Amino acid sequence: MTNILDGVRILDLTRVMSGPYCTSMLADLGAEVIKIEMPEIGDEARHMGPFIEGHSTYFAMLNRDKKSVTVNLKTPEGQKIIKQLVERCDVLVENFRPGVMARYNLSYDDLKAINPKLIYASISGFGADSPLAAHPALDIVIQAMSGLMSVTGEENSRALMTGESMADVSSGIFAAFGIVAALFNREKKGQGQHIDVAMFDSVFAMLLTGLSQQLYLDKTPAPMGNRHPVTYPVDSFPTRTGDIVLCCFTRPLFEGLCDAMARPELKQDDRFRDNAARSANDNVLRAIITQWTQNHTKDEVLAALGKAGIPAAPVQTLAEAAASEHAKARDLVQDGHHAGLAQAPLVQQPLRFSSAPRPSSQTTPILGEHTREVLTKELSLDQAKLDDYAKRGII
Amino acid sequence: MTNILDGVRILDLTRVMSGPYCTSMLADLGAEVIKIEMPEIGDEARHMGPFIEGHSTYFAMLNRDKKSVTVNLKTPEGQKIIKQLVERCDVLVENFRPGVMARYNLSYDDLKAINPKLIYASISGFGADSPLAAHPALDIVIQAMSGLMSVTGEENSRALMTGESMADVSSGIFAAFGIVAALFNREKKGQGQHIDVAMFDSVFAMLLTGLSQQLYLDKTPAPMGNRHPVTYPVDSFPTRTGDIVLCCFTRPLFEGLCDAMARPELKQDDRFRDNAARSANDNVLRAIITQWTQNHTKDEVLAALGKAGIPAAPVQTLAEAAASEHAKARDLVQDGHHAGLAQAPLVQQPLRFSSAPRPSSQTTPILGEHTREVLTKELSLDQAKLDDYAKRGII
Q1: Whole-number Å distance between alpha carbons of B126 and B128
Q2: What pLDDT sits at residue A132?
Q3: What band does A293 get if pLDDT is binned at 50, 70 and 90?
Q4: Distance (Å, rounded) from C-alpha A301 to C-alpha A294?
Q5: DSSP secondary-structure letter at A129?
């Protein structure tokens, strides 16, 4: 079995999260990813916690199976190295602010002259042609502006962020999708191209549930806590040992819940006769269900709901999710290698391909770990040249 | 210019959200998507609101540019139609519970015998080989179990759902990524394959910020409202006209904020001397900043922050995001066609490819709109046969 992206070579000029998330997905599928970092400083994510023995575990998780090569893009020699590598690569990915790559003489137009089949993906907050092109595009900014925050939170309360950098992650996945689509297209048509990925557009394109209200009914969705917008009870509830979620979106499921709670009289209660009524009286019904759940453990409540055939689940912490039987059976957390750390748990992209192996042990690089190896092998730079470049801060 | 997925044909057996989200991304890139729906009933999403004139706008947004063909998978004749279409398709996507496709005699093994180059993607909650394979896998269940909810919410409060079906959407995007990667691989190696996409694994693989704490430090992240885990002030604040977010993650930015608030004395305040101190005294600092922001409009606060070079943004509703200058400039909401609706606004996948056109006006199908067209053209079924099949509930 060979890897899905066997033989594909990625020149990775990305930093922090969206770009590195994208290229890690490609590395997981067996692409060779040459990650370019600033000499001495490296990807900014190397300076973001949590740290173990001075190494960022955040960086480690985001950069599995990449080769770290230090090149100073601000120097003419560094730019020449990049151009020479571009000749030998299939894909370039960058997530600088629009305009920065042109300042380094590394714009798409600069590089397609060198390698017309190059696929060049740019991830930015708003895209190069947006009136907001120059606006700072941190994850929190995009979550705020795209509308994602506006639909998250408790009812009648302030808008909340999702507790993961969804704007970064989602634009990274979309970019990876675009890159492999362009690689497929290139196999058939022989052409390279530029792919423009905006973080705002990426998050906005995910919000189709809210937009199906906004765009068609001109009804602006607001935070609803954990309850479903139209069916009830679909919500989270507290038990003695933690929260659970349950989903009774039909009359039979609601009747099953009444029996599970030993409250059969609720089936005749007019306030709960159908979804519309239950939805309108959600506060009353929430209090009744909570009265039951909070007097039992999570396991007791889930067992009773399971017996009644009601879809339900525990709200798990990351500790519980990572240690779950499911995560173990699917091998979601794997041991990796890191030259400076005794242990390096890594989590790969989630897909399983029947024709390709799943990498069983990935390496996550320290800064410049592969500089000399790559530049010697790919560009035939000799030891004296490399020493000179290192001394002058070029690599 | 031709489409990126020109000539690719997708047999789409998906329903509700994760699968349809996946195949809509492929349709946006020019693949021909033949969507199979149950006669008379259709995709369950057709029965989920919001509705206009009986048509689900949620369904409409999720199924742009697909052909709707009704086939009853429970009948032998229906299964035969699917098998004949499989011979003529590159990709099959399904998101039934594990085991259902085998019951229809349409498992991967059944179909690869017919078309060895078929790429067959299965989206499910936990994957076919998980101990939880049979567990119901609604979006809320996966948000709860994967850990996503556990990191979202106000500090010291209950875990909250993200206000969009992130488990559905993200597994759909990952699946689309896997499908185009497998198409690329097939161009080079000639082989088809099965792709197994679990919603749990998809969400879990996105939570790398939280997992970089959990897996390396054994420190379990909890909801933090809108504040950044280590730097402060990075948070949302209320103004007279709505919330804004601001990001002061460095000393110079914090000093700029003090000046913008006309509170220069705070620069000397020992409680706020560095990120660690500001983070520890976040409640005091939050109150001080709120005192300033709540006495001004959003525009006034954003103007002052912009002048000070502090990254900031308004928290926008979906109405504001959709009507923004950015969304207009990037043409994020487009007019589509729907046989039963006067207007059908649609939002495509977000990427722009320089070598390919972006579809300018997509159609979203009513139930069975293309049944006769597709079955006549692809399988040469004649009018009498089609009438007979329709009468017997096969199509």
Answers
A1: 7
A2: 97
A3: very high
A4: 9
A5: T
Closest CA to A87 of A108, A117, A115, A109: A115
How large is the average pLDDT for residues A269-277? 95
- The answer to whether the CB of A124 falls within 8 A of the CB of A101 is no
CA distance linking residue A284 with residue A290, whole number of Å: 10
Total-model pTM: 0.98
| Neighbour tally for A49: CB within 10 Å | 15
Which pLDDT tens digit goes with each residue over B113-172? 999 999 999 999 999 999 999 999 999 999 999 999 999 999 999 999 999 999 999 999
Active-site annotation holder among A228, A296, A337, A338: A228
Nearest CA-CA distance, residue B313 and chain A, Å: 6
How many residues in chain A?
395
Nearest to B242 by CA among B286, B300, B184, B283: B300
> What does DSSP say about strands A9-13 and A32-37: parallel, antiparallel, or unpaired?
parallel
A228 catalytically annotated: yes
Contact yes or no for A219/A143 (Cβ under 8 A): no
Q: Please give the distance of CA B86 from its chain centroid, rounded to a whole number.
A: 26
> What is the distance, to the nearest Å, from the Cα of residue B311 to the centroid of all Cα atoms in its chain?
27
Question: d(Cα A55, Cα A63) in Å, to the nearest integer?
Answer: 13
Which of A64, A155, A180, A310 is the best substitution to test chain B (most B C-beta atoms within 10 A)? A180
As a whole number of angstroms, the distance between CA B114 and CA B248 comes to 60
H or E element at residue B341? strand B341-346
Residue recorded with tokens 């996946």: B22
Q: Residue B56 forms beta bridges with which residues?
A: B51
Is the torsion defined by CA of B168, B24, A152, B293 positive or negative? positive
The number of CA neighbours under 13 Å toward the Cβ of A192 is 20
Contact residues on chain A for B245, CB-CB shorter than 8 A: 140-141, 143-144
Helix extents (H) in B207-281: 208-217, 251-260, 275-280
Amino acid at A211: L
CB atoms within 10 A of CB A376: 14
DSSP 8-state symbol, B296: S
The two three-digit tokens of residue A339, written as one number: 């030259």
H/E stretch holding A280: helix A275-280
Strand partners, B93: B12, B121
Give the tokens for residue B315.
């928290």
What CA–CA distance (Å, rounded) separates B164 from A232? Answer: 17
Give catalytic residue positions of B.
228
From A33's Cα to the closest Cα of chain B, the distance in A is 16
| Cβ <8 Å between A204 and B52 | no
